[in-house]
Fold:
Amino acid sequence: MSDETPNVTAPALPSSRKLITALAAIAMISGLLVAVTFQVTAPVIKKNQQEALERAIFQVLPEATVAANFQLEGGQLTALTAEQFADANVFAGFNAENQLVGVAMEGAARGYQDVVRILYAYDPAQEGILGFTVLQSSETPGIGDKVETDDAFLANFNPLDARLNEAGDALANPIITVKNGRKVNPWEIDGISGATITSTAVANALNESAATMLPTLMANQDALVAPKGTD
Amino acid sequence: MATDPRAPEPLSLATFTQGIWKENPVFVMLLGLCPVLAVTNTATNALAMGLATLFVLLCSGVLVSLLRKVIPKQVRIACYIIIIATFVTIVDYAIQAISLDLHRALGAFIQLIVVNCVILGRAESYASKNTVINAFVNALGMGVGFTLALLCLGVVREILGFGTLFAIELFGASFQPWAVFALPPGGFFALAGWLFLFAYIRKRRAAAQSEETHVA
Amino acid sequence: MSTAGHKVVLHTSPHLRETPSVKVIMRNVVWALLPIVAFSVYQFGISVLALTFVCVGTCIGVEHVACRLSGKQSTVNDWSVTITGLLLALTLPPGFPLWMAAVAAIAGVGIGKLFFGGLGYNIMNPALIGRAFAQAAFTAPMTTWVPIMAEDRFTQFIPSTLTLPFLRPESIQPWLASVAPDGFSGATPLALMKFEQVPTESLSLLLGSTAGSAGETSALLIMLCGAYLVYRRMMDVRITISILVVAALTTTVFYLINPDTYPGPLFMLCSGGMMLGAVFMATDMVASPVTPLGVWIYGGLIGFITIIIRLFGGLSEGIMYAILLANACSPLISSVTQPRRYGAPSKKGTG
Amino acid sequence: MSPDSHAFIFLNAFLINNFVLAMFLGLCPFLGVSGKVKTAWNMGLAVIFVMIVSSVCAFGINHLLVRYNLEFLRLICYIAVIASAVQLVEMFVKKFSPALFRTLGIFLPLITTNCAILGLALFQTNREYDFTQCLAFSLGAGAGFTLALVLMAGLREKLELADVPDTVTQAALSLMIAGLLSLTFMGFAGLGG
Amino acid sequence: MFDLLSFLRPSGTFSHGIHPAENKHYTAHMPIRRLPFAPELVLPLSQHFGAPSEAIVHPGQEVVRGEPIAKANGFMSVPLHAPATGRIKRIELMPTAKGPRTPSIILEVYPGDSQEVRYDFPRDYTTMEPADIVKAVQDTGLVGLGGAAFPTHVKLSPPKEHKVHTVLLNGCECEPFLTTDHRVMLEYPEDLIRGTKILMKALGAERAIIGTEENKMDAVAAIQAVLPADGSIEVRAVPTKYPQGAEKMLAKALMGVEIPSGSFPSSVGLGVFNVASTAELGALFPHSQGVIERVVTVTGPGIEKPGNYLVPIGTPIGFILDQLGFAGSANTLIMGGPMMGGSVSSLEVPMTKGSGGLLVLTEQILEQQHELSTHPCISCAQCLDACPMHLNPSQLGKLAYKHRYEDMQSDFHLMDCFECGCCSYVCPSGIPLVQYFRIAKSSLREQAARERAAAS
Ligand SMILES: Cc1cc2nc3c(=O)[nH]c(=O)nc-3n(C[C@H](O)[C@H](O)[C@H](O)COP(=O)(O)O)c2cc1C
Ligand SMILES: Cc1cc2nc3c(=O)[nH]c(=O)nc-3n(C[C@H](O)[C@H](O)[C@H](O)COP(=O)(O)O)c2cc1C
Ligand SMILES: Cc1cc2nc3c(=O)[nH]c(=O)nc-3n(C[C@H](O)[C@H](O)[C@H](O)COP(=O)(O)O)c2cc1C
Ligand SMILES: Cc1cc2nc3c(=O)[nH]c(=O)nc-3n(C[C@H](O)[C@H](O)[C@H](O)CO)c2cc1C
Ligand code: SF4
Ligand code: SF4
Ligand code: SF4
Ligand code: SF4
Ligand code: FES
Structure:
């Protein structure tokens, strides 16, 4: 043997049929167990996901009592059923009188550590952003997570100007973060000192999402109607 | 199992306790450290992770022990891994069903239980050679030991890093948390700290003992 | 005199030594640091004085107690831990709560030095480990800056300084409004540059009339104090030179590409902790390589990483992390740059 | 840099969210095989190699699983396929390059089933990377692992000659070094943002 | 340290090294004087590197000054000559500078004798064959007076494959305090030139360079006055720096070549000899005489009458101290210079052929330095910047501290260290690096010997 490893005589193999049978049996048992678990938990998980999403939507649109799912794609706004929430990217909130109180959409941008994903509420009537909630972030606890708790920062959103320009194809003014205490215009966000980077990430997420979504959304405003059959 | 050098162990209290102290998987054997450090930034996560691991340990231990006469030696590792992966998948779905937030906090680490050396190690070195009862008790001990270790870290890191314990605020709003303990370095520091503490205690005890024998 | 009764004392060669001892070197570094501390106290007032005392005191205390506990002779009299305390104080913001400074000192000396065996065995710069620990633990207070030359700085503490242990510092906004009514931006020159593209005049950087950590103010003064050590041959100036040169070169490349977004080399060298780091902290011999070529590589690495973090990282300042990283690399750097010994066979010959 | 760009994915796995120091993946080999710089290099190479193999495998399998709606079998399939793929490659290497096998071979069984490898597969699936992104990701993760491992080994070799207090065990020492490295790597946060 | 511009400076010396305080002012200006004979001389049979000489006298026998009293025991050995007229008293074990007691001839000096050298057989080197010269050099009992006491004739028979083209004469005397070679060059330049010619003849070399340091320009002038007209011998001053006198450094400084690790100078065509050895050769060879006395610098803060003395071989140190007076009640007595010399354990130890200096340091001076020895290595790299061999003493020291001798040898070239002491000298932590290295080397050598024994 050219190989340097000593030639150890392997113990006599049991017939390979036996090996394969054992493996296959184990695999079958496990496949079965997993499949059963999946069947049992799938609806619960889906319900959980839906609830989590709705909780977020109602958090940014506190006045809403009902939410409807829409998909904005290729200049079209399509209504989706409640079960199709995974495909939706626009969530409209309605109050008890079935009036539109606002639209929730997602935005994402690079923060201090990683991408910050937020869900923000837009009010077509005021053409402004009402607030946001963080869906996912790995910003530093105690610093970056202040964007959700800092009162001064949240005061930027009552509402934050996000008007479209005359032509209606872009934001009139880009949403930007300025250094703490320097805000002069209604479309500027007064950053949190010590967390400028996360503040900027929020602004960037808003700006990018608003700039791409709002022109089509506003053009298709009329499609935003409350889901039928809800009480 | 005539070829086996180690005869099945009789059931005793040690079967249970060795995993908790003398052979604690984290503090003594330094196994499965990834989840130990990754998900212990809060006590809740630590507990959940501990229980999930405990569950997988128990189930796989029992099943491996049950099947120990059936599984051929040559494919045993593959079989163990499949068994473990099965239970991990089950736990993964169960946690998603219980709480999405928890699932998000634990992230991929639930699924990574599959590769946790503690579990495969137990299956290979204990469950495959012992009776079902023994395997169960031993896995319980190991699992509890693992969970306790996770809690040791989780409690320290949550109290210092957030000023809370199981999400209950402990010190009032003006407490300044030490965020570093919620961050990755804090995990290493906390575990190093515990190991240092144990070594210190052991040394003190050894010193006291040698003094005793000296006097006697 | 007769040789009767003469005592013969045995000794091994070399029988004479003429170098300053570790103690003398360390003591001289303390002297060289004192003017910087004094200038900082002059600019920021008694808060920095208290900060210095707390840092130095805690550092000395920790080392003394640790030596006691492990039954060793106390090593505080070698002055090295005093340097750690002074440098730590210089790297903290002037209004940093004293209790947090003490925590930083404990972390720096405890896990940065004593854990590994004390003087000579630490793997990274203890003062910077203290600072990095504080930055990760107490990020907000670590990025709270105050203006220089506040009116009553010699009679009043900055409010955050005296925060009670374990509590958050109160907001210094009202105090700021009272001492700097015309609006203090609350940002260091680096942060101004990075986040708002507002450059600061080089002269103010050289003289140190800007906000920042206690010791990262006057580049000129730091260079002078460093020059004293270089003159006494107690500091490895090769490290300082390589850091500054590589940092300047890297900056220049980006500056030439786009002078509007990227600052110029002079700004980079004189702002932030660059000077203090390059002169006093990267030169800590314990955690730097020993080989001649290694020293240049080490310095170059620090200069380069600092600029990369400053220009493209999330933070406005990068010298601390750059030095710590280079410290971590230094055993590797040393081992791949072993000097070619006299009379070594040519590479081919060794086979 | 856009978060989806290959350069950023690489950089993120390499430095910013270093697999070992920030994500806590692959700690067992990290602590176990970091005693000597030379071993650390070889181990690092082996990890990079296995990561690429498993990343490619996982990408392929996930494709199939999604097509047949069998996502719930993902974990089991990943682990089985990665283990056998590495085994296959190992046999291949042993046959065609015994020299390479001698440097890498001993590490392969150690790493085929550890968190770093499986974690890589799971993360790339969660983040829905396409094929080339997967490659960038696995290269970055492997390089990050190697960097951390080699730095650690250098420092541990240095500390072998130190008078470390006797209450500081080898494990505590390694963890403390890892903690300090992790603290250091925080400086890369936000790089390329 | 931290020498930034070293690469800009003209060479003409080696790189690294140190500049210790020279302290040559005690004795540099003092002409060589004769010291009286001690009543009893102690002549160890092993004063040189190699096999000990074999006594050819018996107790009670009378000998005259210059007469051979021990013969060479093989090629790697030299004979011994009676330094004074007198009577052999005993042959017994006596303490030596190196420590262990070794067999020595004890000679009782006749106090009344004129002590003239009557042993004189003229011969002419110019007509001799090289092989005969080598034999004749061995008969003079000459060994390297530069410190190593390596038999000179052995160096005159290099391995066949090596052809020596240049003889280097080492007059650097880089050790602080010592002025022996300086005075010899100044006072006996003719002997030096004659010796040089003998060496060149024996080796078949075309050229010789006398190298000295820049602090001895008067010696350069003295030699220049007597240089042969054909230009085959030149004298050159190199920068004053320790250890310029090490042959490897001298070869680098004068010839710009490095002597490969583990090789003799002859492998690069050089032969290196100390100037005092050469002058001694020049004086003794034409008369077929043997080495019976040598110039010794007796100096140091502990000596009342420092100076350069012609001391008969075998004079006990105690006798010299009694003659010259000393300060303090506890001293360290160093055979050689402060950098490389060894301290002796007893006043009975005699001066031997290899000892060119006797340095007396008071206890206070040494105590002042003890304050240094307290710290671990702080990696200041001063030792790396000092080591003339470009080794890494810092790492070597750390490894030695952990007894990892094998790693020191295999990875950090311990065996290239020639124990010059530069690293210890500069270490601010006061680590006894050279001492560590000596222990490591001897431990490795012992182990190798054990292994050889086990193998055979
Ligand atoms: C450990 C650490 C964590 C940090 N976390 C964040 C963060 O989560 N969000 C953020 O915007 N900045 C973070 N930073 C960066 C600084 O706190 C701060 O943003 C930067 O210095 C800019 O300062 P300014 O906001 O006062 O201008 C962090 C810094 C460190 C050292
Ligand atoms: C700014 C500055 C202040 C100094 N203050 C003192 C001092 O107060 N006392 C002192 O002995 N040396 C002081 N020195 C150092 C001295 O100039 C001198 O170099 C040093 O004391 C010599 O000590 P050494 O011989 O122990 O190295 C100071 C040096 C500098 C640069
Ligand atoms: C560190 C060191 C320093 C030395 N310095 C001198 C010196 O200054 N003068 C000298 O003649 N030999 C010195 N030597 C010895 C020389 O290397 C060489 O052995 C000697 O010049 C050979 O001449 P010799 O055999 O005639 O003594 C030194 C050796 C060492 C290792
Ligand atoms: C030039 C010089 C710079 C130093 N810089 C530092 C430093 O940045 N941080 C520190 O803790 N100690 C510093 N020291 C002191 C000493 O080296 C330090 O306490 C050791 O790192 C502790 O082992 C320095 C010493 C010198 C001579
Ligand atoms: S120091 Fe050594 S080498 Fe230099 S002259 Fe003196 S004995 Fe010779
Ligand atoms: S004693 Fe050895 S290691 Fe030290 S400087 Fe001299 S040659 Fe170098
Ligand atoms: S290795 Fe060093 S001690 Fe040994 S013979 Fe050579 S120079 Fe002398
Ligand atoms: S051995 Fe001495 S001189 Fe060399 S690096 Fe260490 S402390 Fe400095
Ligand atoms: S637990 Fe992660 S590698 Fe073992």
